[in-house]
C-alpha cells in the first residue's frame, strides 16, 4: 500500500517546495540548480508543464509543441515568467532565473521519442 502512495506524496511535497522564497534562497547562495543535479527538469516539466505541453513538450497539446522551437531564449524566458493571458499561467514567482535557464536548456535538447 505504501509502495504505491509514497512516490506521489513525495512528488507533491517536492512541488510544494518550489515556492518563491525557497528557490530564490537556494540559488542566491550559488547552489548549482542548473547543472542537472538538484533540479530534475524532466520531472518538473512533466508535472508542471506537461499537461499542456504534451509528451515533455515534444508534441502540441493545449499548448504548442516546444521541441525544435525557433523562439529566442529571451522569448521563452518571457513566456515562462509572464505566461500569456488566457493561455498559459505565469511562472515568474515559482522559478528563479537559474531554474528558467535549466528549462530553456531542457527545451533546446528535446529529441523525438525513440522506439
Ligand atoms: C495551462 C496550460 C499551460 C501550462 C501549464 C504551460 N503552458 Fe506553456 N503555453 C501554453 C499555451 C496555450 C501557449 C501558447 C501561448 C500563445 O498563444 O502564444 C504556451 C506557450 C509556451 C511557450 C512559447 C512557445 C511558442 O513557440 O510560442 C513556451 C516556451 C512555454 N509555453 C513553456 C512552458 C513551460 C516551461 C511550462 C511549465 C513551467 C508551461 N509552458 C506551462 C499553455 C501552457
Description:
This protein has helices at residues 2-17, 20-28, 41-49, 54-57, 73-82, 97-108. The protein has 115 residues and is an all-alpha fold. The longest helix has 16 residues, at 2-17. The chain is globular and about 35 Å long. The chain has a single domain (2-108), classed as Cytochrome c-like domain (Cytochrome Bc1 Complex, Chain D, domain 2, Orthogonal Bundle), CATH 1.10.760.10. It contains 6 helices and no strands.
Report, as a whole number of angstroms, the end-to-end distance. Answer: 32 Å
Name the shape in a single word: globular
CATH-defined fold name:
Cytochrome Bc1 Complex, Chain D, domain 2
Give the radius of gyration. Answer: 15 Å
Order of helices and strands: HHHHHH
Helix percent band: 40-55%
Q: Largest sheet, described in full?
A: none
CATH level-4 homologous superfamily: Cytochrome c-like domain
Q: Which ligands, by name, code or SMILES, are bound?
A: heme C
Tally of separate domains: 1
Strand-residue proportion:
under 5%
Q: Specify the CATH architecture.
A: Orthogonal Bundle
Amino acid at each position: 500500500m505504501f509502495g504505491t502512495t509514497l512516490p506521489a506524496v513525495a512528488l507533491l511535497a517536492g512541488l510544494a517546495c518550489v515556492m518563491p522564497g525557497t528557490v530564490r534562497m537556494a540559488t542566491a547562495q550559488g547552489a548549482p540548480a542548473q547543472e542537472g543535479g538538484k533540479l530534475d527538469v524532466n520531472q518538473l516539466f512533466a508535472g508542471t508543464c506537461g499537461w499542456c505541453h504534451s509528451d515533455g513538450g515534444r508534441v502540441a497539446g493545449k499548448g504548442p509543441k516546444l521541441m525544435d522551437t525557433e523562439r529566442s531564449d529571451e522569448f521563452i524566458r518571457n513566456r515562462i515568467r509572464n505566461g500569456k493571458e488566457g493561455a498559459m499561467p505565469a511562472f515568474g514567482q515559482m522559478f528563479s532565473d537559474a531554474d528558467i535557464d535549466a528549462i530553456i536548456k531542457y527545451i533546446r535538447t528535446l529529441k523525438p521519442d525513440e522506439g
